[in-house]
Amino acid sequence: MDGILLAATEVVGKLGESDQQHLVWARELQAMSFVFHIPLVAFGIAFPAIVVFMEGLYLRTGKAHYRALAKRWSKVMITLFAVGVVTGTILSFEFGLLWPNFMATWGDVFGLAFGLEGFSFFIEAIFIAIYVYGWDRIPARTHIMLGIPIIITGITGSLTVIAVNGWMNHPVGFDLSSSGVVSNVRPWEALFNDFFWHELAHMYFAGYMVCGFLVAGVYAFAWLRGQRSAYVRAGMLVPLTVACLASPMQVVLGDWAGRTVAEKQPVKLATFEGLPKTEAGAPFHILGWYEKSTQQVKWAIEIPDLLSILADHDPHGVVQGLDSVPANDRPGPINVVRYAFQTMIGIGTLLAAMGVFYAAVWWRKRRPPRSKWFYRLVVAAGPMALVAMIAGWVTTEVGRQPWVVYQIMRVENAVTDAGGLPIAFFAALAIYLSLAVTVFWLLRRLARNPPEVEVPGPVEAS
Amino acid sequence: MAEVCLALAIIGITAYAVLGGADLGAGLWDLTAGGDQRGGRVRGMIQRSMSPVWEANHVWLIFVLVILWTAFPEFFGSSMSTLYIPLFIAAFGIILRGAAFAVRGQAATMREARSFGAVFASSSVLVPFCLGAALGGIASGRVPVGNAAGAPIDSWVNPTSILIGVLAVVTGAYISAVYLAADAVRADLPDLVESFRTRALGAGAVAGLIAIGGLFVIRSDAHGLFDGLTSDGGLVLVLLSAAFGVLTLALVWTRRLSLARFSSAAAVGCIVVGWAFAQSPYLLPGELTLDQAAANDATLTALLISVAVGLCLLVPSLAYLYRLVLRGTLDQEFQPLDQRFRPLTADDHPKQP
């Protein structure tokens, strides 16, 4: 297939060349929308399973605090889902509003994935409403069964969107003529591209980490302040266990992702590291600063051969450098990509170590760790996991530049010709900021209510 | 196959206009309900009716967008890039209203409920107007093929756009009043039945008058569209829509509110299909026909397969949701919005089950 990546043609797009002055504003607006939406995706992937598990614990043991937790979390779940629905809608709008030429040219190639996503989303909205508004009104066994479609659609919904991102990184499923005309579209092939599987697995476990650590952190905070009830303990340990199991897995999955990138997108890998020239036994630089003029990474800690090991599992492996493509085909902000990559790896390693420690203590002593420092780390782990996940997306998205469709269509050709992008950017910034403040404030207040409020009654009306 | 895909998009638009439109229309009633105490009951009813369904209703919009960009990518790119101003406003309005509604459900004081309510209600009026205005721009032939090739202002600030925008607001208000009146019957709240019934009759009459007057506006502003609406299939559907509209008014008048739900939906459906007839064979009048805009066959086939599979799962799920809703299983305790914030008394906490 890779013949396609070597094709000399570039696609300008069905709507012709663009002369947008404000390309960077379009990119920033899109990026901001994703940064806001992605944490909600993490909750969409992982939270339903955790909530249903908690309800299952209640049905098995009959202990009221499990039920109170499940019920309260289901309210958080529907609130975050509501915000996810609207911010997801904005993304659909922005695809057309910001990148009409990309959509006009490729919509038929990858659109299928979004069709499947739309249905998942739809069914999720239906069952999430029934689940949350059905407490105490639907028989308990039926009620927990109604949680299962939410878990499944939470997975399938994001699955197909990730497939589209995989396709942008590894465009397949169509033929390209020497004049840049797209033909013989094969939508199923586009859906299951080579980047789909590792991106999917990597994102899924990230979802469990972000959601698990964030929820556990809330209760770990209460735990540290001396609230030692069964309610707080269960609220902390269940999501924490989930996250601690997921985090070591990320090391394995990240390695798989890294090697796929090395093979299919060597320029992106070279950007991660700021590697100027193709070489065998390439070193890895921690921290430091890539200087464009000298093409060197300065003031860094150099670890010999590590990049070759990461890319190839071989200390003498050959890694392609930035010089393998012309200068205008390389990503501009190399340091942004480098630091995003290192942030992801650094936090990921720390959280993986934490997960292993937690599992080891359980294994040896049949109880969770007791150290206060461990729980302080749990409080910090949620925000850190979130930062790592966003850094991961910055790595893969900025690392793909200047291409929107890797080595086929440039971002500058995909963008709209419409005016007023800076205005749209600042309007969106104001809205997202106020939304973030509101959601945070709401969740904090929800956490402050005493758990007794979870009993049925008129106070419930909402 | 392009026709089938277009039919799916039209079904989606109709569903959004009816279901999403009803939710948007509720915003107008929320906005105009009056002060805290006077409007408390109306707002409480709106909160109660919409909570379990608005997310599912909203997803129809996403469904429409997805069908359009997959099956008619050039049409999608051209119209989004020309109509970017109303569509950006609509998109921002959608965030604000959805989030504000969800948050108002959790408000703890009257002041909070009031400010989130204001955001929810005012953006609920803005969104259908902007979406309607964008449709008007397309229908009146003001969107050319190309990257932002049309006029950024004139494409949506023109007689047809304003007409359709206003009509979208009023129609939504009308449908939502019918639904809320029917919900109030189920909730056994006769005073609210009456107040929404009055609103339904008023909004229905206004919508009818605007629609009739609007034909003259369209005749002078978009002659092609007018010809389409007054001949052949277009004319039949316009007349059908009018008939359903009159029928709905009669049903509301005689208090057969559950039946009125269906006939009001049919009235909206007929006008959407009529519009499609009026515009055919064009997606962008004078610029892009359905066949020119359609994606290749492999994509259309794949889309239809996935929609067919999706519908097999969706239809029973939706039926289950609406059955639970109409049976009252998911009904929330009715509480006038202002009453939720009085201090709790001992009676408010029943014993642990």
Automatic annotation (TrEMBL), chain A:
The keyword 4Fe-4S does not apply. One of its GO terms (cellular component) is cytochrome complex. It is found in: Cell membrane. Keywords: Cell membrane, Electron transport, Heme, Iron, Membrane, Metal-binding, Oxidoreductase, Transmembrane, Transmembrane helix, Transport. GO terms for biological process: aerobic electron transport chain. The keyword Mitochondrion does not apply. Its EC number is 1.10.3.-. Coiled coil: none annotated. It is a multi-pass membrane protein. GO terms for molecular function: electron transfer activity; heme binding; metal ion binding; oxidoreductase activity, acting on diphenols and related substances as donors, oxygen as acceptor. The chain crosses the membrane at residues 34-58, 78-99, 111-134, 146-168, 201-222, 234-253, 339-361, 373-394, 423-443. Belongs to the cytochrome ubiquinol oxidase subunit 1 family. PANTHER family: CYTOCHROME BD MENAQUINOL OXIDASE SUBUNIT I-RELATED, CYTOCHROME D UBIQUINOL OXIDASE. This is Cytochrome bd menaquinol oxidase subunit I. The gene is ythA_1.
UniProtKB/TrEMBL annotation, chain B:
PANTHER family: CYTOCHROME BD2 SUBUNIT II (PTHR43141:SF4). Keywords: Cell membrane, Membrane, Transmembrane, Transmembrane helix. One of its GO terms (molecular function) is electron transfer activity. The keyword Electron transport does not apply. It comes from the Bacteria. One of its GO terms (cellular component) is cytochrome complex. The chain crosses the membrane at residues 6-31, 52-72, 84-103, 115-140, 160-180, 200-218, 233-252, 259-278, 298-322. Pfam families: Cyt_bd_oxida_II (PF02322). Belongs to the cytochrome ubiquinol oxidase subunit 2 family. The keyword Protease does not apply. It is a multi-pass membrane protein. This is Cytochrome bd menaquinol oxidase subunit II. It is found in: Cell membrane. GO terms for biological process: aerobic electron transport chain.
